[in-house]
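TEACHING EXERCISE
Course module: macromolecular assemblies
Task: Read the component lines below, then compare them to the predicted structure of the full complex.
Student: A.B.
Group: 4
Components provided:
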Amino acid sequence: MNMPRTHLLIVAIALLAAVVGFLAFRDAPPPSPVHQALTLLPEPRPLPSFNLIDQHGEPIDEQALTGQWHLVFFGFTHCPDICPMTLQTLAAVRGRFEGEGAGRPGVVFVSIDPARDGPDMLGDYLAYYDPDIVGITGEEAAVAEFARAMGVAVIMGETDAHGHYNVDHTTAVFLIDPEGRLAGLFRLPHRVDAMAQDLGRLIGSRG
Amino acid sequence: MNRRVPAALAALAALLLTACGPGPDAGVLIEDPWIREAPPGARALAGYMRLENRGDAPVALLLANSDTFERIELHHTLQVDGTMRMVEVDHVPLPPGETVAFAPGGLHLMLFTPREPLRAGDGVTIELTFSDGTARDLRFEVRDVRERR
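Instructor-supplied answer key:
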């Protein structure tokens, strides 16, 4: 079956993003011994700007990722295994910071499958894990551009006879600092205790 | 009356007994079958279990079917350079004496489009078909595995 042209384009963009991402992170130092799960960047770097919509259909841009720490994950709701595991983990990590006000990290889920993940779908899906999780979706090209700029590989699979397609994607969880900069990332495996401890130390050290 | 009919029936019964009731030392033991409860509206769920081949011969899991889902595929989640890939496999080998786990982050039954909403505590019957020609109906329990807050 032929892939639609947009899918080919997205594959090409994804491969480019994977290479750029690899080059960008290849020289990152090994994780500091005080962090079990977190890889901090040597210097925080600004987030790419984006104009997308949240699960309520409201416009959202990079300014929404300021004022507190945020954990950002790219995934899609038709993903039955890794995405639920990760959302569950992130909701649990956030749960460890209950009552800590602005010190409590926010969780952001960016759908890399906006064609199937409209705001309503995303809203119901995320509320199951935590109603405070921010969902981001939008125009396919704009979402793909944001993913590319973040170094997230997105590989759209072929549509099968049942109309289903899979989306392979980067599983890293990005850590955004309160200034809205990319501070580091959590690679697999994502474990609640290790992530919460690393975050607690980092947030504590930054006051 | 044709004397061959009872003989044929007996042979058929023997065959069915063999197929349905393997001895305690033979066959595939299936443990802890469960389905991850999914958010409302989710169109894809995952099923997990452990399969232990207690027989002497290799066997493979070939198919899974259920009236509760539009269709089921055997999937494997692979981590390749930090990217998650979901790959369909056409069978899962079960070597004799070994246990193969369908577990989060690895092998799973990919359950497409539930015909009814499934909530924690529900039971779902899934038929598993093996390469030795046997098929087993199994009750998968739907579980909510979110961390309680």
